[in-house]
Amino acid sequence: MEREMNRKLVLEDGSEFYGYGFGSDTEKVCEMVFNTSMVGYQEVVTDPSYTYQMVVMTYPLIGNYGIADEDFETKTPTIGGLIVRDYNDMPSNFRYTKTLDELLLENNIPGIYGIDTRMLTRHIRDNGTCKVLITDASTSLDDAVEVLKSREISNDAVKRVSCKKRWYSRTSNHKFNVVAIDCGIHLSTIKGLNARGCNVTVVPYDTKAEDIRFMKPDGVFISNGPGNPEDIPEVVETIKQIKGEFPIFGISMGHELIALSYGAKTCKLKFGHRGSNHPVRNLKTGKVEIVNQNHGYTVDADSVKNTSLEITHVNIMDNTIEGISCEKDKIFAVSYLANSFPGNQDGRYLFDQFISNMKEAQKNA
User: Fold this and answer.
1) What are phi and psi for residue 300, nearest 5 degrees?
2) 90-115, pLDDT tens digit by residue?
3) How many CB atoms lie within 10 A of CB 71?
4) 159-214: pLDDT as tens digits
5) Are the beta carbons of 358 and 219 closer than 8 angstroms?
6) In the sheet that 266-282 helps form, which strands lie side by side, from edge to edge?
7) CB of 91 within 8 A of CB of 63?
8) Going by C-beta distance under 8 Å and a sequence separation of 6 or more, which residues neighbour residue 35?
């Protein structure tokens, strides 16, 4: 006998999608987005940049290799919810310590499977990201639409995921001290800096310029994070005050924040870039890099013309800006995830560029 569908999604336009629940059975309103990665659902679920977002996984089979303790991108997942076609609750992987269902349940995150994720993805591509409610299948459409109208998605995502006080990630025989401004930083990014000889001091997003100067870093890293970059003017002001004093490297939201600090503007993409198969052209080398991405905002190209920034990378699919730099200030940034796991490694040379800039700064000190 076929199991009865017990959960559903309701979109702002009244569309309904029925499925089966896993994880928490809580009711939530989130922004709905899609991710095109074929592997890495654990990294997606534990990516702080998905705070207040419900993610449609376009790859159909999710859960089949479970959850491994070494693969978390943050200790406490804050994703809004997960939407998949087929969910596998019997993982085949010697590394797994729990199932995806158990991870979601522990963190009060709802999941739903049995959904036509191809149809849902086309809906997002055609109409853009939108609010979605995950609820019990018995909830009436009128009640669901009323909930969607009455609940706003919070704009405090970075404040929620950023560390509350500074913490340290040290490595043996370090050569550099890096301050990382945490807007929702990946643990794999910190590991990538450690592997290159950097002691990393992770600080809250609203850390002031004078506090960073007091730490005397060799370089400053601006992390990825969730939401609208214009919601955290504190970080933009800090970058304004320290640019030119230290080599600075930013990724994803860090890229947008650096652009704002130079007077450029940002705008929201229709459905964003999320997944591990995005082609980006490096304008300096002419090479195409296949990279991992997770951002819903981009830098306005026209606004960059009135700044001292140079455009270094562009997205081949929609020609949006993917990289900027200011050689004079030893500052550069990309909108993709240069050191994320799993997936493509084409962007990891950027960490070496950051190291090179810090070496040069040390020589000139």
Assistant:
1) -70, 120
2) 999 999 999 999 999 999 999 999 99
3) 17
4) 999 999 999 999 999 999 999 999 999 999 999 999 999 999 999 999 999 999 99
5) yes
6) 167-169, 198-204, 176-182, 219-222, 248-251, 331-334, 321-326, 310-315, 266-282, 288-299
7) yes
8) 44, 55, 56, 57, 58, 274, 275, 294
